[in-house]
Amino acid sequence: MASRVIPVDPFDLVVFGGTGDLARRKILPALFRRFCAGQMEENALIIGAARSPMDDEGYRAFVSAALEEFNPSGISDTEAVAGFLRQVSYVALDATGTEGWQILANRLRGRDAVQAFYFSVGPSLFGALAEHLHSYGMAGQGTRIVVEKPFGRDLTSAKALNATLAAHFDESQIYRIDHYLGKETVQNLMAVRFGNMLFEPLWNSQYVDHIQITVAETVGVGGRGEYYDRSGAMRDMMQNHLMQLLCLIAMEPPAKFDPDAVRDEKLKVIRALDPVEAVDLVRGQYEADEDKPDYRSQVGDADTTTESFVALKARISNWRWAGTPFYLRTGKRLRAKVSEIAVVFKETPHSIFGPEAGRHRNILTIRLQPNEGMDLGVTIKEPGPGGMRLVDVPLDMTFAEALGPEAEDVPDAYERLIMDVIRGNQTLFMRGDEVEAAWAWTDPIIAGWEARGDTPQAYDSGSSGPEDSLMLMHRDGRKWREIRA
Ligand code: NAD
Q: How far is the CA of 10 from the centre of ligand 1 (A)?
């Protein structure tokens, strides 16, 4: 059974940066899949807009190549590809100049459809795009804009970006994308927490020992070295993706599943975070392995102190979480590509089985990748005679297995998020005040290590990160879960 397709209003979508890497890899394939699912009206316009001089035919060839590379299974349906390409066109324009803008405005004039503009360009162009959309009459009430990360590099720049966008758009028209929030499991986290009686009563410092969030990548910085070195793991991952996961895990139940109710609760979590002390922070840089260069040579700066790994202990000062630490880590060139959240419950207060049975904990693991799903580690009796020996086994719920073909048909994060933009549903998008609060928490952490002149600790490629990251846990009598696929 295919997953249910809910119709959306007719829409046109303009991708600024339509010839870029993100458009090619994610946005265009996502649109094609939604077209195949029947969520795009026949006369919907998909317009690529970028600097390169190109005509419609040239752009269709570009889109077709992108689909072939990034959606290979879909392109065997040649009729679908041809149908999609008929709706695709291109406008050459410069975000900062006047060329092309009138052509774009004419193409969209008089259309009775939601008009969405995806800003898939660097944030330095957001202001110019917003300004031009306004001056060429494309910033009406029905317009929605989608903006990519990075949303600023500190609180000051994030505030400036928010002010730039707010000059022409209402907050309800601005969709700040964090593709982690579009993942099926992330939303399932809310379903599990707030749709079951089982977990919520235990979801607090009385029963939860600690929570771990790991986002590990096996790749290095690759061709993005120059960009990455200006950012680092703290800005590139921690401030946004890990922070969003932390919010969903830690927030209070919203009164209803409504965009602002959910985002109000997430904001309260960020505002309740304590400052992170130096002793609770570890930064690392990967070393070379046999055939891959080290971080410093990949970014072309032998003295760079930017981190490719960061781990920290966060504390949330509120009634629910006081006393339960949240350990967060993310990095590149680690042992496996894994994103997971582990809720580690406390041991039972007393073991009736005696010391030889050992002490056991329940762990609820929420896997974002690989094998999206959850498992709950429970303690049972080891089978066989010879006394009461206990063993931990997983109650596994891999979605693909539990839900069958329906789970395999689940739209990817970009598909879901783009369709949410068309529906006008902002639940899975970051609000301006949320982003600012996240930077307000991040800035002093960065300022702290800059003032101390800390340098990142080296770690082996293919490892679990620097030694000090292990110590961050050992010191507290805890340990990280293994990073393994
Ligand atoms: P890219 O360099 O591959 O593409 C940039 C695009 O912007 C090109 O289409 C280019 O023609 C266009 N462009 C540049 N200057 C322009 C101008 N003055 N006027 C009009 N168009 C102009 O970049 P990308 O990797 O596609 O990333 C786009 C944005 O998305 C960036 O902000 C990036 O940080 C963000 N992002 C990218 C990824 C990714 O996987 N590539 C992931 C998350 C966020």
A: 26
CA of 66 to the centre of ligand 1 (A): 15
**Strand-by-strand arrangement of the 281-286 sheet:** 390-398, 373-381, 363-369, 338-345, 208-216, 326-331, 309-314, 281-286, 457-459
Task: Give residue-wise pLDDT tens across range 459-468.
Answer: 999 999 999 9
Q: Domain 11-148 has what CATH class?
A: alpha beta
Least confident of 184-188, 232-236, 303-307: 184-188
| Portions of the chain given CATH number 3.40.50.720 | 11-148
181-410+430-474: CATH number? 3.30.360.10
Pocket test for ligand 1, best of 16, 19, 22, 153 (most atoms within 8 A of CB): 22
CA distance 216 to 460: 14
Residues 110-146 as b or e (16 or more Cβ within 10 Å = b): eeebbbbbbbbbebebbbbbbbbbeebebbeeebbbb
- The span from the CA of 366 to the CA of 374, in Å, is 4
Closest CA to 82 of 32, 134, 148: 32
Counting ligand 1 atoms within 8 A of each CB, the residue from 120, 129, 153, 178 with the most, and so the one to mutate, is 120
- Atom 30, ligand 1: residue with shortest CA distance: 120
Distance 17 CA to ligand 1 centre (A): 5
The string of pLDDT tens digits covering residues 321-370 is 999 999 999 999 999 999 999 999 999 988 888 888 888 899 999 999 88
Residue range 190-223, pLDDT digits in tens: 999 999 999 999 999 999 999 999 999 999 998 8
Which atom of ligand 1 is nearest the CA belonging to 93? 20
Tell me the catalytic residues.
Answer: 241
pLDDT in tens, 419-442: 999 999 999 999 999 999 999 999
Pocket of ligand 1 (CB under 6 A): 17-23, 50-52, 93-96, 120-122, 125, 148-150
